Amino acid sequence: MNKSVFQKRLATLRKNLTPRSPDTLWVIQPENRRYLSGFRAADAQLNESSGSLIINGEKAFLITDSRYTLEARRQAKDFEVITIKKDFITELSNLLVRLKTKVLGFEGDHLTWELHRQLAKQFKALKSPVRITPMAGVVGKMREVKDKAEIKAMKASADIMSAVLDEVLFSLEPGLTEIEIAREIEGLSNDAGAEGMAFPPIVASGPNAALPHATPTERKIGPKDPVIFDVGVKLDGYCSDMTRTIFLGPPDAGFKKIYRIVRQAQLAALEYVRSGEVSTKPDSIARDIIKDAGFGDYFGHSLGHGVGLATHEAPRLSVRDPVRLEKGMVVTVEPGIYIPGKGGVRLEEMVVIEKDGPRILTENDNYYDF
């Protein structure tokens, strides 16, 4: 009998643990939970969970409440589903006693201090106390390299986003507000079959384009404004992420120059997004081009980031945290120049690293040849 993709991921997770690792893992990050189990429910807010996973060397459980029991059983077929009857802390404690857990590893960046305090108190009072300790990046590391099905989903997501952006740009005209355009993007994305936006659309025009993560406003787009579109959708849980900078009329010489520099930096960096290269190299290539052109102070963010079940995940293409790039990683390449009070330019592709280099997933021809 063939193993499911989730059984294979569980086996890999267990192989990645060392004798010094906790004997039981508690997975609470929504993307990690879905990656390991297939359970798709979302968390409404930070302190409200739709479920979490408890995994040891032999067993795998999904703890949830009655709102999600049927959904969990249908989607997480490789996990034993436990429905909370009293309260979560009691249910978790009982399960850990049943498993004879000594050390519970948890995702420290997704646990509130208050819940940690309550759990530590409860676990200490058990007949056989359980020690709780943070585990960093165990599942996240696994998610860095995508399999064929994941890449296929991301390509389909990118195709939807590219088609929607084409449609929006075809009807773009001066006088429309940033908010109007952002709402149109959302509506067309839903109509095209996306399960939702990967993140709220960024539509930033004129001086607002100098804000890398601007929120759309009631500002009306002018005839020569730079307009940054940073958009992405989700499909089968997987995200797309792309950015184009558009001008409704001929831009002035200054913005033409900035655009050429950003495009040059992007194309040069793409040459170094390949298997075996260190993740800091593409960033330094793009950053040096922008710096040498006199705009080093106006490129403050990293060159790119991983994309998958989350819009921002490992690995990062930045000056820090070097890792060796591998075939199957999906990353963005998005240099930018932002001039306060005037505007900016950012260009972003989402690519998958293949044997001979990067393959662009966000295929969209809305580039200028200034």
CATH class of the largest domain: Alpha Beta
Overall 3D shape: elongated
User: What name does CATH use for the topology of the largest domain?
Assistant: Creatine Amidinohydrolase
Number of helices: 10
- What's the order of the H and E elements? HEHEEHEHEHEHHHEEEEEEHHEEEEEEE
Global Rg: 23 Å
CATH architectural designation of the largest domain: Alpha-Beta Complex
Estimate percent helicity. 25-40%
Instruction: Return the structural class.
Output: alpha+beta
Distance between the termini: 58 Å
How many strand segments? 19
Would you identify the regions where 5 or more consecutive residues have pLDDT less than 50? none
CATH superfamily of the largest domain: Creatinase/methionine aminopeptidase superfamily
| Largest sheet data | 6 strands, mixed
Rounded average pLDDT = 95
Order of adjacent strands in the largest pleated sheet: 4-3-2-1-5-6
Question: Proportion of β residues?
Answer: 15-25%
Number of domains: 2
